[in-house]
Write a structure and sequence with these properties.
single chain; alpha+beta; 2 domains; three-stranded antiparallel beta sheet; 3 helices
Length: 97
């Protein structure tokens, strides 16, 4: 016989459904419960989420100001004269599908 220790604070999933173990029973979680659990356990953070925006939505002057500040305070190696798209790539902030 194989003995598996009880997991605490962990979601289990099967076939795209999340389950929480309560005693000896697996209880399915509603979508909202699974998201709340992931947020609470810091699996999902706002700064990890992809922003649904386009390049034209970014204020170019604000971006250049941010990069100049990052150069001065954090010694980032990014040229503020680069196109915004390239600055985002270098900061690893651009998500391409």
């Amino acid at each position: 016989m194989i003995s598996v220790s009880q997991s605490r604070g962990v979601l289990h999933s099967c076939k795209s459904f999340a389950f929480r173990r309560i005693g000896t029973t697996n209880m399915p979680l509603a979508r909202e419960e699974a998201i709340a659990f992931a947020r609470k356990s810091r699996l999902i953070r706002f700064d990890n989420q992809v922003c649904a925006t386009q390049l034209v939505d970014i204020d170019e002057a604000a971006m250049r100001s941010f990069v100049r500040s990052a150069l001065a305070q954090r010694r980032f190696d990014i040229d503020p004269a680069l196109p915004v798209s390239e600055m985002l790539d270098q900061l690893e902030l651009q998500h391409n599908n």
